[in-house]
Amino acid sequence: MFWTRELIARNAPVRRRAAPPPGEPPHLGRGVAAYLGLAIGDALGATVEFMTPNEIRQRHGVHDQITGGGWLRLKAGRVTDDTTMSLALGDAILATGGVEATAAARAFDDWMRAKPVDIGNTVRRNLVAFRQTGNPQAPASEHDAGNGAAMRVLPVALACYGQPEKTCIFANRAQAHVTHHNVLSDAACETLIFMVQDLLAGRDPIDVERRRAEKLASQHPVFAYDKKRCENPSGYVVDTLKAVLQSFFATESFEDCLVDVVNRGGDADTTGAIAGMLAGARYGLEGIPRRWLAALEDSTRQACERQAKNLLLQAGMQPQASPTPA
């Protein structure tokens, strides 16, 4: 059931955030939770990727455990390209001190050469073109509106935390246009970046919805998510964002958000990863179910924790922008 924002506001229970460790900025823990949420949503959703909601119900009832399997036959706790491509981008950002197109393209190319467990067709095609031309910017294309750039925006959101919006937009397009040079992809990526940053800063989710999600739907009506429930979402970035935004704004816990979105089926590893990123930033480490965190592969968990902290620490060394008016 999709709730309206007003119903959520009236019925939401009061939730207290655990206090951060002494001396640690609150946004640091939320950033770590966002990265772990990305990986957990990826691992949870991979099991039911490309299944319909009815197929999920018949096979799993309600899918709420990280069990592996799925069409990729993953071991429990393994992640897909959503997480590994994000980590590749984050490593490039840390190595260069910022988001740079050629460095991102080389990182993605190295990632592809390492034979990832999965890779999208648009990503593959444009990385092959980069190998041939050395140009880190794919040509603009109305056909490249997949979710492959949106799934990997978290390192940009963390690396640009506290920076002007124009800086974030420039940084996002430097990495996104390596594989997805498309207006709808850009709009989705930038909305997600600003949502993550708002949530890291402790903004109220209702305010975030008004400032970011509703603005996206106003500027690009194709993203309107307040109508029919989006089930079996495809890899089209519009479908992805509709499903994610519905789940994120209609639930009141990390677990409920991820269970709702992955049980819609379709491109469930990516909707799970993006919803997990947002939910982690919203609910923090204390909101993540212990069973899911324990199920995540240790090397992935450690890489996410380490990279989140380093990206935010790097961001903290940059001159900070004045707060954006609400």
What can you see in these coordinates?
- With 326 residues, this protein is mainly α.
- The chain has one domain: ADP-ribosylglycohydrolase fold (Orthogonal Bundle).
- The protein is 59% helix and 0% strand.
- The protein contains 15 helices and no strands.
- It has helices at residues 5-11, 26-46, 53-60, 81-96, 101-113, 121-133, 154-159, 165-176, 183-200, 205-219, 237-249, 254-262, 268-283, 290-295, 298-316.
- α4 (81-96) packs across α5, α8 packs across α9 and α11 (237-249) packs antiparallel against α12.
- It is globular, with a radius of gyration of 18 Å.
- The protein starts with a helix and ends in a 10-residue tail after the last helix.
- 52% of the residues are buried.
- Mean pLDDT is 91; it is low at 1-19 and 320-326.
Sequence-ordered SSE layout with sheet pairings:
Blueprint lengths: L4 H7 L14 H21 L6 H8 L20 H16 L4 H13 L7 H13 L20 H6 L5 H12 L6 H18 L4 H15 L17 H13 L4 H9 L5 H16 L6 H6 L2 H19 L10
Helix pairs in contact: 2-12, 2-13, 2-15, 4-5, 4-15, 5-6, 5-8, 8-9, 9-10, 9-13, 11-12, 11-13, 12-13
